Amino acid sequence: MDIKELKDLEYIKRLSAQYLNILKPADKNYNAEIKVLNYSELGCVITSMLKLCIMALENDTNNKSSIDVGLVLEQALHLFPIDEMELLDVINEVLVKE
């Protein structure tokens, strides 16, 4: 590489560090963080995403929806707090035994 290419590369690296902050490398994929206030808000986000998919499917008579229902459902699935639901099951079992 010549000096100009090295300067360009360094410039791109500085820009990347400054602007490319949403996606975080994780194995072979990237993660993006979603910020919510609490589990209630997370539940509202998931519910709204599912309602969006229902409306898109109900209104999609020509299969030409501009909403990628599969992608939205996949993201809702990733947001679903499975570990927390398992914890609630354990807590419920303990309370039922008392």
Number of domains: 1
Structural class, from secondary structure content?
mainly alpha
- Global outline: flat
Helix content: 55-70%
Sequence of secondary-structure elements: HEEHHH
Structure annotation, total helices: 4
Query: Gyration radius, to the nearest Å?
Result: 22 Å
Reported for the largest beta sheet, the result is: 2 strands, antiparallel
Please tell me the overall pLDDT: 90
Strand order of the largest sheet: 1-2
Unreliable spans are: none
Count of extended strands: 2
Report the span from N to C terminus.
72 Å
What portion of residues belong to β-strands? 5-15%
Quick structural summary:
The chain is mainly alpha-helical and 98 residues long.
Polypeptide structure, described:
This protein has helices spanning 3-19, 39-59, 69-79, 82-97; strands at 23-26, 29-32. With 98 residues, it is mainly α. It has one domain (3-97). Strands 1-2 form a two-stranded antiparallel sheet. A hairpin with a 2-residue loop joins strand 1 and strand 2.
Overview features:
single chain, mainly alpha, 98 residues, two-stranded antiparallel sheet, flat, 8% strand
